[in-house]
Amino acid sequence: MELLLGLIGVxxxxxxxxxxxxxxxxxxxxxxxxxxVALLAYDYRELVGxxxxxxxxxFVAIMSALMVVIHPNPMVSVLFLILNLFCIALxxxxxxxxxxxxxxxxxxxGAIMVLFVFVVxxxxxxxxxxxRLGGGPQRSGAIxxxxxxxxxxxxxIRNRGEAPYFDPGPSGPGFGTARxxxxxxxxxxxxxxxxxxxxxxxxxxxxxxxxxxxLR
Amino acid sequence: MRVEFFLLMxxxxxxxxxxxxxxxxxxxxxLMCIELMLNAVNLTFAAFAHENQSMAGQVFxxxxxxxxxxxxxxxxxIVIALFRRRRTTDVEDASLMRW
Lengths: 216, 99
Fold this sequence. Notes:
Chain A is mainly alpha-helical. Chain A has a domain at 172-216. Chain A is built from eight helices and no strands. In chain A, helix 1 runs antiparallel to helix 2, helix 3 packs antiparallel against helix 4 (74-94) and helix 4 (74-94) runs antiparallel to helix 5 (98-123). The longest helix of chain A has 26 residues, at 98-123. In chain A, 18% of the residues are buried. Chain B has a single domain (3-86), classed as Helix Hairpins. In chain B, 79% of the residues lie in helices and 0% in strands. The N and C termini of chain B lie far apart (49 Å). Chains A and B meet through helix 3, helix 4, helix 5, helix 6 and helix 7 of A and helix 1, helix 2 and helix 3 of B.
């Protein structure tokens, strides 16, 4: 299984590198390869467990996140971000958060990303000239600080203690369903829920005012 | 399934989003990278909610999504207003209030 994962990694990295070249057929080829690998994994689904699927989803999530950052065309960035959001929705499913997975797809990948796609199309953006990497000291400083940040996070995750106890709320067979979440939202988190509605109204009015050509 | 995997995944995604915010110049892509970071935090919340069998983490994810929607709407409106004035979405060109 490690061999297969390594093979997928090599193929995906190769496709990633090649997709910067103008050839249009290579992303389609990479997608076909991914489908083939998924079918292969489906054939051996008795052998592969949740770990395999989590690893595969995680790999796709990391790669799509990297593509969001790397790719010079904003439209491609949006599409890879949608792929990333779908991967996170699958993670939510693995983590017993069914309702969150559903609203992740409907609200994030549906509503918010449509807004992004709409603005990118509306402004008809060209690809940008280059990344804002700056001169030598800025770049090396960014690399050092980024590595330090990542090392700190890994250290914190490795050496974390037991989570402090707090009132766990309802759990059991209904964990993560819309029923449980809704029950909490309308009882214990009532005030936050109302505040969120005010926030949404304010954001809506603010967006209209900002995007309007001239007031009145 | 160990919770560390999801925590590491959240940390990696957050780092990638953070690098994106610092490195990219297009304001829309910067907003997308912020969404990436918010999603990484959401994943961490869901992982801890699963580990502690507590719905509080999932409720928090719900509110983070609400805030993300509001932030995206206002941010994109600002980008449109900026584009209307300056014909660009490059954050390097929006330097009027810079120190």
